[in-house]
Design a protein that fits this description.
By secondary structure, the protein is α/β, with parallel strands linked by helices. The protein is built from 12 helices and 9 strands. Helix 8 links the parallel strand 4 and strand 5. Helix 3 runs antiparallel to helix 4 and helix 7 packs across helix 8. The longest helix has 23 residues. It is globular, with a radius of gyration of 19 Å. The mean pLDDT is about 95.
Length: about 350
């Protein structure tokens, strides 16, 4: 038994039998989702029209789910990687979306490849990383014994007045520019050093989706042999969960475990505190997808002064009514920051 498996919380009633996929991938007993995607053909040329690529993704998702279910039941994952693979298709769709950006619910539709007109995130195509390290401050099931392999991106698509990472989320020039190859090398280094997962976070990672997916598409070709002779690590999506339906479809095939924030209630608090409309409808719809897809996830909620009745109570009531088994971290570390 590994040190990660031996952690006492796995034996607690609330966690016994939970997070099974994440736990098995973290221990290299099962292949991460990106490894499964890399083993399936794209069934489309990557230069096909975008509508054709989305149709291919829909068909590929069904094949992915069938193969993943087989692997859960003991089927071996082959070593062959077709060209193009389903993972290549996912990365290509991320690149296509950047040209009419609809990664998040703002649906700005600006061409970020040109960088002339900018949307809500104020970004063109460049991706910047503020830091990457063994994060020992995450929840125990993510930090484990050797830390969560965290890659912090700059910029965000929300404007939370209380953001404790305001220097990262509001300064789009914070950090250093990073290519997909650099991100892949960061992920490789963190995993080889013992991190239990690769934690994509920010700011918010959604607006960097094109580079993240391209980086993940490079990972199956890396060593050392952690599962079936190649690199393996669970991908953790640590996000405000304000992403679009299209982004969720791509993330479904690449993220092994999810850590969504659920900040605000259904009133105007998201507009007043984060300048973000459609918040409640977007986040609850994305959470229901996780439930219906049978994904491993935990939810974070930050208690804010003066927002218990309007935010905390309806958030927890909604979770209790729609996904009562979901682990929730009720966070009490609010302090005035950023634009408070």
């Amino acid at each position: 038994m590994s040190a990660f498996d031996a952690l006492s919380f796995w034996r607690e009633a609330d966690f016994r039998g939970q997070m099974g996929w994440y736990r098995e991938v973290a221990a290299n007993r099962l292949p991460a989702k990106f490894r499964i995607c890399a083993a399936l053909p794209a069934d489309s040329a990557l230069d096909a029209p975008e509508e054709a690529l989305w149709r291919a993704l829909e068909a590929g998702t069904l094949e992915f789910l069938a193969l993943r279910n087989g692997i859960r039941q003991g089927r071996a994952l082959g070593n062959e990687r077709p060209k193009p693979s389903l993972l290549d298709l996912v990365a290509e769709l991320g690149r296509r979306m950047l040209a009419h950006c609809n990664f998040c619910r703002w649906d700005c539709r600006v061409d970020r490849t040109r960088g002339g007109k900018l949307g809500a995130c104020k970004l063109a195509s460049e991706t910047r990383v503020s830091s990457h390290f063994h994060h020992r401050g995450e929840e125990l099931l993510y930090r484990g014994t050797h830390g969560s392999g965290t890659i912090f991106f700059t910029s965000c698509n929300m404007r939370c007045a209380f953001c404790q990472n305001g220097d990262i989320s509001t300064d789009r020039l914070n950090g250093e520019a990073a290519s997909a190859r650099t991100l892949a090398e960061m992920a490789w280094q963190l995993r080889v050093e013992g991190c239990h997962n690769i934690n994509w976070v920010g700011g918010d990672p959604t607006i960097q989706l094109h580079t993240i997916l391209e980086a993940i598409a490079l990972l199956p070709g890396l060593g050392p042999g952690m599962y079936g002779g190649a690199f393996n690590a669970p991908m953790l999506w640590n996000s405000n969960f304000f992403q679009s339906d299209e982004a969720m479809k791509l993330l479904r095939l690449t993220m092994d475990v999810w850590l969504p924030d659920f900040k605000f209630g259904p009133g105007r608090c998201a507009i007043e505190l984060a300048r973000t409309g459609w918040y409640w409808d977007t986040v609850t719809a994305n959470l229901l997808k996780l439930r219906d897809w049978g994904e491993d996830f935990t939810i974070r909620h930050l208690i804010m002064p003066g927002h218990v009745e309007c935010c905390t109570a309806p958030v927890l009531d909604w979770i209790a009514g729609h996904m009562p088994e979901a682990p929730v971290n009720i966070m009490d570390q609010y302090h005035p920051d950023n634009y408070c």
